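hey so i finaly got around to running the thing on Hemerythrin-like domain-containing protein from Oikeobacillus pervagus. pasting the sequence first so u can double check i didnt mess up the copy paste, my clipboard has been acting weird all day
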Amino acid sequence: MELCCGKVPGQGNRPISQFCEPLVRLYQEHSPLNEMKQDLYERAKQTSSSTDPRNHLLQLREKVLSFQRALDQHSRREEDGLFEMMTAHIGKELGPIAMMEYEHSLANENIRLFLEQTSLMSDKLTKEEALGFAQYIVTAYEVLTSHFMKEESVLFPMAEQMLSDEEKRLLAERMETI
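ok and heres what it spat out for the 3d tokens, dont ask me to read them lol
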């Protein structure tokens, strides 16, 4: 299998090919999500120079809806698969799983607020209002950028070490149904 991501950040020269298949899959799903969120971020930042902020936000909204669908599917695989299995080893109340779930929630809340606000915006949208709406996407971008880095450098390597071969097999099966 050709791996586009190369080495695991923070893990020296450890190639991701040393990860089990479900962790490689989650890791590789970050790449297209990163491209989509980068595009959203750049478009959100362009709101300040837009001559038609309402139309600009409506176009951004369509991109956000597409991103949200992809992110939701990825998040479900993590939450209902990996996070659930890791909870048996490290608990859920404090530590990495609690932080990962909080960051999912925070990113989703910012996306939800953007979509809600842009569905209600008036024809007389001010530049300041448009910038406020776009800020939700900037915040979601920042949260998810940090979140993905933590997963790749901390959670995935931890899971590779802690999960048994049987758990990795079950995780692969579970991810196929999510």
